[in-house]
Design a protein that fits this description.
Radius of gyration: 17 Å
Strand order of the largest sheet: 3-2-1-4-5-6
Shape: globular
Helix content: 40-55%
Distance between the termini: 15 Å
Oligomer: single chain
Length: 216
């Protein structure tokens, strides 16, 4: 039982910590609790797991909010802010984050063409910048269990729109496993186990069993 030689992590066609960045838009109290298509508790759990994964793998993270500085909305939810303590937040008045100069410059400055992109709501603050980023040549991966819309129908239509435009639907667990890639890469075992046990439910228990057997 032998693993193939590790691919170049920069040019790999799959997600790697070296070729990807995480973008999170508008995970604020109004949007989190009015995303009717998603359970708020599960939504928060999933996006925090995704953020913890990116931080643990030392990936660039771009965070953005809408109308915090002018007092209209509260800031990013504290559960997410807690795992992104040093990450700059780009506040906007524009609905489409891709029409905010500082935000777009920050995304481009990562040097990464693969963007794992989460936003609330699916049909608005996810769909608009994702379509624009795709047209600019970025590869977009949307964690469908980390986004939500103002209704189930709106969520589905938003996902349909971005997928038809070229985005790839994923889940936070698939992102975690794609970054991990090989059980024999022991240096990332603690990352996988820590995030999976805290946020993954039955998946976390399975990971713990597998890692225990791998180390025997």
């Amino acid at each position: 039982m032998s693993s193939a030689d590790r691919r170049d992590p920069v040019t790999d066609h799959l997600l790697t910590p070296e070729n990807s960045a995480l973008v999170l838009v508008d995970y604020q109290p109004p949007q989190v609790y009015t995303s009717i298509s998603a359970n708020p508790g599960e939504l928060v759990n999933n996006v925090v797991a995704l953020a913890r994964t990116a931080v643990a793998f030392d990936m660039p993270v771009i965070l953005s909010t809408a109308q915090v500085e002018n007092g209209v909305n509260p800031d990013t939810i504290p559960q997410l802010r807690e795992v992104l303590p040093g990450v700059t937040s780009y506040d906007r008045t524009v609905i489409n984050a891709w029409e905010d100069t500082e935000f777009v410059e920050a995304v481009r400055a990562t040097g990464r063409k693969k963007l794992i992109f989460g936003a609330l709501w699916t049909e608005v603050c996810l769909a608009f910048p994702v379509v624009d980023a795709l047209r600019e040549g970025f590869e977009i991966y949307v964690p469908v269990d980390c986004v939500g819309g103002t209704s189930a129908e709106a969520h589905r239509s938003g996902l349909d729109r971005v997928v038809q435009a070229g985005a790839v639907p994923v889940s936070w667990i698939s992102v975690l496993c794609e970054l991990k890639r090989d059980w024999n890469r022991e240096e990332s075992n603690e990352i996988l186990l820590g995030v999976a046990l805290q946020h993954g439910g039955a998946f976390g228990n399975e990971v713990a069993i597998k890692l225990n057997r791998t180390s025997l």
